[in-house]
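Hi C.,

You asked whether I'd gotten around to modeling the 393-residue construct. I have! Everything is below, sequence then structure, no commentary in between.
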Amino acid sequence: MTIASAPPHSDVDLFSDEVLLDPYPVYARLREMGAAVRLDALDRVWALTRYDHIRAADGDWQTFSSDASVGLNEVINARLVGSILGSDPPWHDKLRAVLMAQLSPRSIRRITDYVEEAADRLVDSLVERGRFDAVPDLATVLPLTVVFDLIGLPESGRGNMIRWADAMFTIFGPLNDRTRAGVQIIPEMYEWLGTLQAEDLRPGSMGRSIFDVAGEQGFDHHQCVKLLATYVTAGMDTTINAISNAVALFAEHPDQWDAVRADPGLIPSAFNEVLRYESPVLAFARRVTRDVVIDGVEVPGGDQVVLLFGSGNRDERHYPDPDRFDVRRNPVDHLSFGYGIHTCAGQALARIEGHAILRALSERIRRFHTGEPKRHLNNVVRGLESLPVEIET
């Protein structure tokens, strides 16, 4: 019988500006304290800090439930009831089956040529300019274009989509100023999506497919809108942040960029390492359905845990020398897309876009010279707001 010990606890606010600007030293201290650390700044909330325990929890939905529990505030958890993110099987599986019919690796491979051509055109235009901002001019353009084309959305929403997607993630944090601002923004997105009917979406598109199967699946219009929102967020912020983080990292580590340019076969490994080293999604919450002992510490049923993907990806127990950026590492088991039934639905699309951008850049750009980056603060996703770049071709 395992004897639970007194729990380690910390008064750190994981969602403060200071921590979000540089979370990794804080994560390292929490890992040293234990695999499960009680967070005094939040009510009945624990941080899961180490790779093995995060992955195990993410794979055990019966014990670590998403049902109205993925946010660290009850406002958003109440709104997520019945959504794919805020539900468990069997309802979750029914919703996910509809999404994955269009987002499975086999389905996404059909658009590889389209994404590659779009990446080439984008990078060619930036090379002609010689200098650009890696966030709005590069990282944002391809995912936004792909999402609108694949989902078949009308152009009237394009100008707001980045702001809406950013708000969709930040509302999963505790009820701080960022969450409150996001909660005010999200109704705009649902109001716009709620005006769309099947005929407003391009025939054959991912978005149209939701309406096509709505009747046979028993979905009403409101549920179709929720699934459309999932399509949008699944393909946006994580990819945008991964691409801009990649440019920043290769500017900082030119030897690693030289390795990718010399061997394009390293591109999948390099993209995995970018995702591990700078997790585009730092954390998601779950609710514990029963008393559970984690590494000798008892977490009571009813409490929430924060799965710190950004900490697990830097866990020295799993990745040797984890603070070293190494494109040959190929961490295919990184946590940035999650694990288990809630693994990121859009990860196949994110990989195709990320690989296409890295290939196009590596064929045309010898060196990145970056100015002062500006970090974008979001409760859940980690990325940049601005990164001035000058290139050598």
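If it helps when you're writing up: The chain has one domain: 9-392.

Thanks,
B.
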